[in-house]
Specification:
- With 348 residues, the chain is of the alpha+beta class.
- It has two domains: 192 residues, Histidine kinase-like ATPase, C-terminal domain (Heat Shock Protein 90, 2-Layer Sandwich); 121 residues, Ribosomal Protein S5, domain 2, CATH 3.30.230.10.
- It has eleven helices and 15 strands.
- The chain has an eight-stranded mixed sheet, covered by helices on one side.
- A hairpin with a 5-residue loop joins strand 1 and strand 2.
- Helix 1 packs across helix 5, helix 2 runs parallel beside helix 7 and helix 10 packs parallel to helix 11.
- The longest helix has 18 residues.
- The chain is globular, with a radius of gyration of 22 Å.
- Bound molecules: adenosine-5'-diphosphate (ADP) and magnesium ion (MG).
- The site of adenosine-5'-diphosphate has 23 residues, from helix 2 and helix 5.
- Keywords: DNA damage, DNA repair.
- Belongs to the DNA mismatch repair MutL/HexB family.
- This is DNA mismatch repair protein MutL.
Length: 348
């Protein structure tokens, strides 16, 4: 109250600072999986294995065959604001990696029992650090591991009961987590992924290089019927390039749950995009039905800001109108053959 003496100002302990940051980055097991997969992709992995127990609350283990972390850097990888991806402002502006804040591992480590094991190819042995939600109390120990990295996250939120309370059922948490894996697997056909839950294989996806292999991956991740009711899109105009698959009206959903749109490789949920797609389908889908699509938009990185927020899938286009008109006109044209003849082009 107003009559009380002012309290002294104190700098947060590293652990508390990390736990506060974790509140933003680590909402649920799915967010941990997203961060760990992004780290594996940033490390150039071509194979990522994800092992889950009890919806991710008991165990999340992500193993990759990427570059690895040198022994001397292992403890630092768990420290806040420690990253190998950005050393300068120039690098930040030309960023090509998915991560750069150096926050994910520190945040996850502060609210779980985390073990990080790694072996770069040029190092003869693997090493391991553990952190049990303490302040960087990490001890380096030798370990067994092939080239690459494994991050094991046990007992998520064990030391933050208030957060733990917000977790939903095992099934719901796993569904969120599987959705994250699907998005990543759709954005990187060149990487092999596997996902196991409670010792059961949910997805096992080999690297998909040809269009036929890519379509097989999509059929596995979405539904086989999507692939047999989809058109291939490949179009380019004014520095914008769109590729992918759009569902025919013969395969629609009562929920917008099979809509994947990637901008420069990152999954995006965006009003401008959503509106353009909806307009393009307007006269071919019944009211209340939603189209399915897996679409990739590529444009010069100066035309889009994808790092608006670390966890939300937002983008900011420099020229929204240009992007909207491109998406609408190209999708509208792709769907021309399934539109009643006299309607072709009439909504331009
Ligand atoms: P950021 O990804 O923003 O750099 P993180 O906390 O996610 O921050 O990771 C910290 C650092 O740990 C990374 O910059 C990277 O050097 C290293 N690292 C994390 N995961 C991996 C991995 N799977 N393979 C190789 N290096 C990794
Ligand atoms: Mg990261």
């Amino acid at each position: 109250s107003i009559n009380e003496q002012p309290r002294n100002i104190a700098v947060l302990s590293p652990r508390l600072a990390n736990q506060i940051a974790a509140g933003e980055v680590v909402e649920r097991p799915a967010s941990v999986v997203k961060e760990l997969i992004e780290n594996s992709l940033d490390a150039g992995a071509t194979r990522i294995e994800i092992e889950i127990e009890q919806g991710g609350v008991k165990l999340i283990r992500v193993r990759d065959n990427g570059r690895g972390i040198p022994q001397d850097d292992l403890a630092l990888a768990l420290a806040r604001h420690a990253t190998s991806k950005v050393y300068s402002l120039d690098e930040l502006e030309a960023l090509g990696s998915l991560g750069f804040r150096g926050e994910a591992l520190a945040s996850v480590a502060s609210v779980s029992r985390l073990t990080l094991t790694s072996k770069p190819a040029n190092q003869s042995e693997a090493w391991q650090v553990q952190s049990h939600g303490r302040d960087m109390a990490t001890e380096l120990a030798p370990a067994a591991h092939t080239d690459g990295t494994t991050v094991e996250v046990r007992d998520l939120f064990f030391n933050t009961p208030a957060r733990r309370k917000f977790l939903r059922t095992e099934k719901t948490e796993f569904n969120h987590l599987e959705e994250v894996v699907k998005r990543q697997a759709l954005s990187r056909f060149d990487v092999a992924f596997s996902l196991r839950h409670n010792n059961r294989t949910i997805h096992s996806l080999r690297a998909a290089h040809t269009q036929a292999e890519q379509q097989r991956r999509i059929a596995q991740l979405l539904k086989p019927e999507f692939m047999t009711n989809a058109l291939v899109v490949e179009t380019e105009r004014a520095g914008l390039r769109m590729t992918g698959w759009v569902g025919l009206p013969t395969f629609s959903r009562s929920m917008p749950d099979m809509q994947y749109f990637f901008v420069n490789g990152r999954v995006v949920k965006d009003k401008v995009i959503g509106h353009a797609v909806k307009q393009a389908y307007r006269d071919v889908l019944y009211h209340g039905r939603h189209p399915c699509f897996v679409l990739f938009l590529e444009l010069d990185s100066s035309g889009v800001d994808v790092n608006v927020h670390p966890t939300k899938h937002e983008v900011r286009f420099r020229d929204q109108r240009l992007v909207h008109d491109f998406l609408f006109s190209q999708l509208h044209r792709a769907l021309a053959d399934v539109r009643p003849e006299n309607d072709v082009g009439s909504s331009f």
